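Here we describe the complex-level prediction in full. Unlike the single-chain runs in Section 2.1, the two entities below were treated as one system.
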Amino acid sequence: MSTRRLTGSANDPHIRRRYRAEKRFKAYCIGAVGIAFAIIVAFFTDIISQGYTAFWQHQVQVTLEYNDRSARLGQFALDSDMRDIASRGATRSIPLEMEDNPDLMGTTDQRWVPVKAEIDQYLKHGHDLPAELRQQVDALADSGRIQSAFNTRFFTTGDSKLPELAGIFSAAVGTLYVLGITLVFAFPIGVMSAVYLEEFAPDNKLTQTIEVNINNLAAVPSIIFGLLGLALFINFFGVPRSSALAGGLTLGLMTLPIIIISTRAALRAVPDPIRQGAFAMGCSRWQVVRDHVLPSSLPGILTGTIIGLAQAMGETAPLIIVGMIAYIPEAPSGIFESATVLPAQVFTWASEPQQAYVEKTAAGIMVLLAVLLTLNATAVFLRRKFERRW
Amino acid sequence: MSVGETTLILLAGLIPLGYAGFFLGRRKAMATQADGTRLHSRPQQYGWYSVVSMAVPAIGVAFAASLLNLLGWIALPSELVLAMTLITAAAGFAYGLMAIRPTLRARNTLDRLIRWLLLGAALISIMTTLAIVLSVIFEAMRFFREVSVWEFITGTVWSPGDSFLEAAGRGDEVSEGGGGVFGSVPLFAGTFMVTAIAMAVALPIGLLSAIFMSEYASLKTRGVVKPILETLAGIPTVVYGFFAAITVTPIVVDIAGFFGLDASYSNILSPGIVMGIMIIPFISSLSDDVINSIPQSLREGAFALGTTRSETIRNVVVPAALPGVISAFLLGVSRALGETMIVVMAAGVRPNLTWNPLEDMTTVTVNIVYSLTGDQSFDSPQTLSAFALGLVLFIVTLTLNIISTVMVRRFKQQYD
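The structure predicted for the assembly as a whole is:
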């Protein structure tokens, strides 16, 4: 019988079916990873392709005339046909300049100023412009009076209602303030809690409650921390709404469990003989922790703290609840002043209807992602470099 | 005198006293030691002892006074508080210096104090939870005084009144009456819809990726794949929101249009998909950990019976890892329920009870955000409704987390 079923051999149709199923299943698994990778690539490509144009901006060369009329309204320093092209914000400060420096009266000055956002968008992406204006712009571009230059303004100014002038500076300063408060609040308390739980705590009901509680706290949705910040810091303690202090404390409470959990892991990695050796030399428990356990677990603690801060830096929802989406054109100069942070600035821009804000949003996201990736890479580097294997 | 000034004067008094206490205490101890007497502790520990006996009672007094002030029971004038604090500090200073003698166990006292300090820090996390529960319940109670619980839980119409929609820029959709109706069913329907879509995306991709990483990939491949997948977890949610609103939504609308379907530009499908992408790394990392901790002997046993790799995975590994996978799934669900920015930016603000994911729906978190960013007074039911919604959200996510923790613990006990 030549067609006899060869049970168990490679020609057994049953076995071949099973092998096909095996291949299929493996293909599913690889496909899943492939899909995830494709999503990541698509995501970054999408953000970068939308955002990179914002780092360049078109400027127009104009002649500013300092005369009686421009002393009243900066717009009049421009030729009437330039007023439709140059950004309104570029001439806004002229009356003030003339007040500070009366010698300017009667002189002229040639400089490059940003063009209006619509014109910038037309030159970059060919968005619609009225025909007459388009001819004017094309003519200027042909004669070299419109040029594209690196947009330093994006990094040096705050938010603006004119997209061509909007930048991330005040949001970046706000982020520094908020993260500073988060760090000052969450780092000492987090490390102290972890030291207590790992090195001092007896194994009793209270300790177990604290442990369960910290794990649960780490999984509470961030918006709930926003509600807490609103009710506790703003309504009860009277911290000013929208201030960096309110935001920083709220994020501090949120980051606390992350720091505690990672610090505990770092403390646990220090082997017991180190402690026993120190005890044998007559150290008290605190001396053991201060002089031996903490120094050897410091890289792990710092890594966890950086990761916690990176997470806090990307957080938006709780900050919206405590009012940190105010319009902030000037960088805040203290922790009680209204401030905004990078992700909140991204959110504000994303809700603006003008097309020009889309590239601003994407560019803001690129800066945010660059900082976050750097932070996370630093954390990984620290761990690799200083981690001790015992 | 402002709070800041009072604090500054207080510090200006306490810091020099502290320095003086440390050096005087240490000098006294060293002088005692000099004539050959054996001390119980090191001289600097006596120094610290006098600092502590000066500062702890003084700070206690100042803290108690500010607590009384904050709770509004007694408002003491700040000059009085200052005087009381400084007198206490001076008394403690004198006591600390006098108490120093060779038999004083300064080191033990310091250790005990540090222990209490650390315990205090550890209790802050408990107090945070308590504060969340209390503040949310307190504000939610004020809401339920005006709106019945039954209406809130079972009502199918959510229309908090004119100001809410105006704040959201949709003043033209104001409903009749305008007094405010708070039936939360449409919001929870939206939240569950978006969660279901997210998990439908995240679970298969996350779980299969985890299986690939732990069962098929070489160590080297795994070392590359895992961190790349985890970058997804580090992306801020506001970025996902932008991605959903600007990129995914138009694609979804186009695809739906290709099949002749009419999709809204704030459909719930696109935030759902993007939220799923966000959750992939949670599912894959947690499942990967769990699958990795399944003992190799289980797999070898299955191979010995002649099963192929995929049969081993499906019939042995995954069933054994199931509690862990379920707990990863529950954590993912809890993330999705509480996720805010993606839905705020990409989903609608119109409460809508529907089964069609191409229509716009709104969620619990969207309404929390919009009712707290409007211009209403803090006492209005619109604002307070945020806390009622927050309370439900907190309870649901907390329950999911606890179930998930318990399942993981059971699983670990089984194989450790």
